[in-house]
Amino acid sequence: MIAGIRSVFDYVVCVDDGSADDTAVTARRAGAHVVRHPVNLGQGAAIQTGVEFARRQPGARLFATFDADGQHRVADLQRMIDHLDSADLDIVIGTRFAAPEAAATVPPLKRAVLRTAVWLNPRIRRLGLSDAHNGLRVFNRRVADGLDLTMNGMSHAGEFIALIAENRWRVGEEPVEVLYTDYSKSKGQPLLNGVNILFDGLLRKRMSR
Amino acid sequence: MNWIKVLLIAAVLMLLIYLLLSRRSAQSRAWVKVGYLVFVVAGIYAVLRPDDTTVLANWLGVRRGTDLMLYVLVMVFAFTTLSTYMRFRDLELRYARLARAIALTQAQPPEPPESGGVRPPPEPQ
To answer: Where are the domains of chain A?
Structure first.
């Protein structure tokens, strides 16, 4: 997978969120930079770490977040980069719901929950997004420099959207396909976690930064 | 409506406002101390003259002093739970930033492939 991404990006950063296996060795061998959290912090924290590492690299211009469980496709990534450049956007987010045939591959219950999440959040609707919780994102320096995710766990996607709205980043969507393999399903979050995400989203604004 | 209902609802609303405005300033910490002082004085008084809590309860529309104590306890517990929750969130964020700083200082570059010689690291775009 890392080799695949390296066909598009020169730099790949793999954030090892405190895992005990040989993830770091494998990733480095495949050509990725590895940043290892000394303790497990959660996905949101891992994304922030990866972006902070990447934005320190001189000359870094384009950034992407890519889930490591193999659910995203490199071909989608390439199209998102083209979209970002051609439409002069700050950030492009993948969506599972732009094309009906792509949406059909999402498990029905998951689809309903994700749809509800979008429907419940007026901010997402105002930005014209159809999939709030897609892990595939491409963005430019402006977004990378401004990114400050404080939700360490699974609520970062909503926080990402909030940051887009607050900073008035120009956002666009690109249809992508998410491969629901058994592995990515086992690594995915249980739907009940949506309750946590909803609650975190409501609390976020009230928290001091 | 009984006075106790007004008071309990007011306490719940206070809870909400506290939650919304909580910025952990020196001022708010001072108020926590003042609140604790009031609690200690009231507690000692209630222990020494338990019947007076019933009198107070009756003023408020509650029959027994013990019931009043229970209501107060529930409210205090809710305050404590929420403020602990907020504090944990804050702590978690600091902890994450600390761990991130450590992680970034120990970032490892890619390993050159074992076979086929050493490849130079890719140039930035």
So the answer is: 61-204
